[in-house]
Amino acid sequence: MSSSSAPGTVTRLAAEFLGTFVLVLGGVGTALLAAAFPDPEANTLGVGFLGVALAFGLTVVAGAYALGPISGGHFNPAVTLGVAAAGRFAWKDAPGYIVAQLLGGMVAAGTLATILSGADGALAAAREGGFASNGYGELSPGGFGIGSAMLTEAVLTAVFLFVILGATARIASPATGGLAIGLTLTLIHLVSIPVTNTSVNPARSLATAVYGGSDWLAQVWLFLVFPVLGAVVAGLLYRLLFAPTADRDVTAADPAAVRVDTRAAN
């Protein structure tokens, strides 16, 4: 795609805002509204961990195909910084993407809070339970400590980046990239929901921690730092090990082509 026909900055930022909004609304909304329906003690209709994992994966599949051609479909500050480290995205565009993603997540969390306020006690119960926030130690679903949380978030975000970069490489099949990325995010959630309630996305973590309250906000730093760390390391390693083959026809002279080639995720 030539630079003259590439989407403008406002259009790309709007796509990132909308994609992150849908990701948080769909994934976190499933966790809050459907995971343990009608209640944790009588969970006869709820979708459980599997349903939440699928919800996050499905939102990424939808966003990748609907909005990926416009903005690259990052929907995640860690992904934006990871693909920049891999040479697939211009560093100068990263701040705008990250702001749009954070705003999209916050608006989605606010929308969920408004929906929950429509049932007696539902919003209070969601906030009492942490509003599907990420945590470690006493706030981990399985009681996992800070070391386990750090390793889980860094390693799984790195895995996510490797899949994103491989699935959107020049030699890959563009028709299946979004599906591969979404299924990978589903797998990541199946592994890590018991450990941290799964972040791998700072925008998702910050949005829910704001509504979860002070205990969750005190731990949100880990879910801002370690997904980014894992993504950047993965991006640098991919650039060193795989990019010469996988992206052999991508050149720095065509940044628009690099950007729209990154149809990614969470």
UniProtKB/TrEMBL annotation:
Keyword Repeat: no
Transmembrane regions listed in the UniProt entry: 17-37, 44-68, 103-124, 144-165, 177-196, 216-238
SUPFAM superfamilies hit by this protein: Aquaporin-like
Key words, A-Z: Cell membrane, Membrane, Transmembrane, Transmembrane helix, Transport
InterPro entries from the UniProt entry: Aquaporin-like, Aquaporin_transptr, MIP, MIP_CS
Bilayer topology annotation: Multi-pass membrane protein
Similarity annotation: Belongs to the MIP/aquaporin (TC 1.A.8) family.
Name recorded for this polypeptide: Aquaporin Z
Gene name in the database record: aqpZ
